Amino acid sequence: MANNSGIQLFVGLGNPGAQYVSTRHNAGFWWIDRIASETACRLSNESKFFGDTGRFKSADRETWLLKPATFMNKSGRAVAALANFYKIPAEAILVIHDELDLPAGSIKLKKGGGHGGHNGLKDIAACLGTNDFWRLRIGIDHPGDRNAVVNYVLNPPLRDEQKLIDEAIGKSTTILSSLVEGRMEEAMLKLHTKV
User: Fold this and answer.
1) Which is the most buried residue in 13, 34, 64, 82, by most CB within 10 A?
2) Which residues are known to be catalytic?
3) Is 85 left (phi over 0), alpha (psi -120 to 50) or beta?
């Protein structure tokens, strides 16, 4: 399974529980749900991986989907459990998360970097022992005031914002095969180029 050239594990970040389903902080979950639907991948709870997992095949490669069932600030426990069990290196992991520093409807792919105050990324880096994993950053915009951030991310987007976010997620799912096959520059070019 240690084929290092492409993404072997897609991790969507969010908080478990019905009260969080439609909140901005769950944008990573929305992405995983969209991919699961498009690939007919059934997600089921896997207690040893502390989350909902599923496998799908793309370009003859088996790939994992994971939605940690821990709260956001403990996401690393689930990521490390699955990655260690299947010997998936950090550079073959893509974490999909909400991003305050990008406008709603914007989506960016990058490798490594800091956590920018995102507790999910912070915990994953700590549990994996490295920042050297890929991130797909889904823009949710910033409320404009640092003190308003917690309330902002734990509330649903406005209808117009939701539409922009859904469109961005839709655009990003078209690069799935590039991600799985390790064609990261091609994926970035396609994702970051305005049509």
Assistant:
1) 13
2) 25
3) alpha
